[in-house]
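A.,

Following up on our hallway conversation. C-alpha cells first:
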C-alpha cells in the first residue's frame, strides 16, 4: 500500500475494483497513479448442497458487497473523506442471475462448478449439441450458463420476461448502473455466436426464449452509468463499468495482451490465456473444444482469446486438507518439503497415481502403491496437473504458433514448488508482482474510464 500520510490534506481521486471470485470477493482502491490505497476481502457466500451443488442467493451476494465496501470505508476514513470517482467490477464467468423487469433477482446464481444441468444439455436438439462448440467457442457441459438456464426452466422457472445478467453485471446494475452484458462474460454463457457476436438463434429456441433474454452487449471498461447511494456515500456518484471476465482482466492488468505469451492464473482453477487478433473460425473451435479449450471474446472489443483450464487449485487444496493442513504456515512448510525432493519425487515411477485435474473432472483421486509423505503426494498432484497443462498447450500449438513466454499469477503461484513444476511445461515463466491482479486490473479500468473526462 502507498504511504497515504499526505492524502488527508490534499484532493484525491479514488478508483475501486471489485473481484467476484470463487473463494472470496475482493476490493482494491487505487489513486490516479495506480498506487494501492485500501484493500479488503470477504468470503463468497455460496450455499453448498449435496453432490457438489453450489449456488448463491442474490441478497446474500449484495450483503457481502455492502460489508466489503464498509471495510474499505473504514480503511479510508483516516485518510480521506473523498468518495470513489469510479468503480469497476470483474468476476468469474458462467455464474449469473436472472432478473425481472425491475431488475430483481428471479432465481439463484449457480457456481461454474455446480453439476446441475447435465440432463438438460443431453436433451438439447442434436443440431445444437453438434454445433455448440463451433458456434459458441465452448465445450458443451454443465459449466456453461445455458445448462443452468435449462435446469431452472425444467424446475418450473418461467424464463419468459426475464433477462440474464452475469454476476459482475448484476452487481453493477444493483449499484445503480445500466442493465447490459459485457462481451467476455456473455461469451461464457453458451448463448453467443462467436462469429456474429450476437445471440445464437438455435440456442434460444432450445431454451424456449427469444433474444430479449439478453440485454444489450457492451465492451469491458465502457461507461455503465453512475452508482446510487444504496451502498453508502463512499461509492455514491462513482462512474461505473463492468471490467469483464476475471482471468482476462488480470491479463490486461499485467500487460499480457500480446499474442506471443500465456497468461496463467493459478487460483481455484488454473487458466491459461492466449490472446488472438481475430476468431479462429467454426472448425478450429470444434477441434479446440474436443480438448476442453475455449475460443471466446476478450474484454477488449475485436480481440478473442483461447482459454484453457485445469482444476489444479481445487486438487491442491484437497491435497492440503487430506494432509491436515489448513493454514499458511503449514502450507509453507509443505512447500519447503516438496522443494527438498526432486521434481519427479523419490518414489518409484507409478508409486502414486493421480487423476482429477481435467476441466471436466475436479475430483481428486489418489492411489498409493506404497507409503507416501504429504510432500510426495503434493508433488504427484503437481506432476499430474503438469501432464494436463502440457496436453492443453499441445492442442493450442496445433492451431496457433507456440507461445514464447508465460506470466504466472494467482495465489498458488506463490508456492515455489508450483512455480518449479510449471517451469517444466511453460515457456519462460515469470511471476506477477501483484497480489490481487483481478481487483487491481478492475480498478485500473475504472481509472481509465474517467481519465479523459475528469481533470487529473
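Then the amino acids I'd put at each of the 456 positions:
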Amino acid at each position: 500500500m502507498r504511504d497515504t500520510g499526505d492524502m488527508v490534506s490534499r484532493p484525491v481521486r479514488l478508483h475501486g475494483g471489485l473481484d467476484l471470485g470463487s473463494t472470496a470477493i475482493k476490493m482494491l482502491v487505487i489513486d490516479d497513479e495506480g498506487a494501492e490505497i485500501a484493500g479488503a476481502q470477504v468470503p463468497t457466500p455460496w450455499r453448498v448442497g449435496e453432490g457438489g451443488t453450489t449456488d448463491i442467493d442474490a441478497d446474500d451476494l449484495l450483503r457481502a458487497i455492502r460489508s466489503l465496501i464498509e471495510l474499505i470505508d473504514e480503511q479510508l476514513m483516516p485518510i480521506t473523506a473523498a468518495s470513489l470517482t469510479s468503480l469497476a467490477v470483474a468476476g468469474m464467468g458462467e455464474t449469473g442471475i436472472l432478473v425481472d423487469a425491475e431488475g430483481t433477482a428471479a432465481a439463484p446464481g449457480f457456481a461454474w462448478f455446480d453439476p446441475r444441468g447435465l440432463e438438460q444439455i443431453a436433451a438439447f436438439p442434436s443440431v445444437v449439441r453438434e454445433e455448440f462448440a463451433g458456434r459458441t467457442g465452448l465445450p458443451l457441459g454443465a459449466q456453461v450458463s445455458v445448462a443452468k438456464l435449462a435446469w431452472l426452466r425444467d424446475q418450473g422457472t418461467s424464463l419468459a420476461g426475464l433477462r440474464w445478467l452475469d454476476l459482475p453485471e448484476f452487481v453493477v446494475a444493483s449499484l445503480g448502473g445500466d442493465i447490459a452484458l459485457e462481451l467476455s462474460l456473455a461469451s461464457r454463457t453458451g448463448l453467443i455466436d462467436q462469429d456474429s457476436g450476437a445471440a445464437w438463434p438455435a440456442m434460444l429456441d432450445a431454451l424456449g426464449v427469444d433474444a430479449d433474454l439478453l440485454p444489450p452487449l457492451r465492451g469491458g471498461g465502457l461507461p455503465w452509468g453512475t452508482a446510487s447511494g444504496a451502498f453508502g456515500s463512499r461509492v455514491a456518484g462513482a462512474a461505473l463499468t463492468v471490467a469483464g471476465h476475471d482471468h482476462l482482466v488480470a491479463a490486461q492488468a499485467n500487460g499480457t495482451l500480446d499474442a506471443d505469451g500465456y497468461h496463467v492464473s493459478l487460483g481455484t482453477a488454473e487458466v491459461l490465456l492466449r490472446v488472438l487478433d481475430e476468431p479462429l473460425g467454426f472448425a478450429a473451435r470444434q477441434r479446440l473444444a474436443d480438448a476442453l479449450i475455449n475460443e471466446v471474446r476478450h474484454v477488449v472489443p475485436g480481440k478473442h482469446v483461447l482459454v484453457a483450464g485445469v482444476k489444479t487449485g481445487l486438487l491442491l487444496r484437497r491435497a492440503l486438507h487430506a494432509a491436515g493442513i489448513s493454514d499458511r504456515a503449514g502450507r509453507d512448510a509443505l512447500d519447503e518439503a516438496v522443494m527438498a525432493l526432486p521434481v519427479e519425487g523419490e518414489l518409484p515411477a507409478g508409486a502414486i497415481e493421480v487423476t482429477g485435474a481435467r476441466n471436466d473432472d475436479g475430483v481428486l483421486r489418489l492411489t498409493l502403491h506404497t507409503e507416501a509423505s504429504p510432500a510426495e503426494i503434493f508433488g504427484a498432484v503437481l506432476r499430474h496437473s503438469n501432464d494436463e497443462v502440457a496436453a492443453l498447450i499441445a492442442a493450442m500449438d496445433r492451431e496457433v504458433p507456440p507461445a514464447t513466454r508465460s506470466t504466472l499469477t494467482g495465489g498458488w503461484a506463490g508456492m515455489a514448488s508450483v512455480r518449479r513444476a510449471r517451469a517444466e511445461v511453460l515457456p519462460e515463466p515469470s511471476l506477477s508482482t501483484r497480489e490481487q491482479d483481478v481487483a487491481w486490473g478492475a480498478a485500473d479500468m475504472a481509472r481509465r474510464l474517467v481519465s479523459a473526462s475528469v481533470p487529473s
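The chain has a mean pLDDT of 92. Curious whether your intuition agrees with the design.

B.
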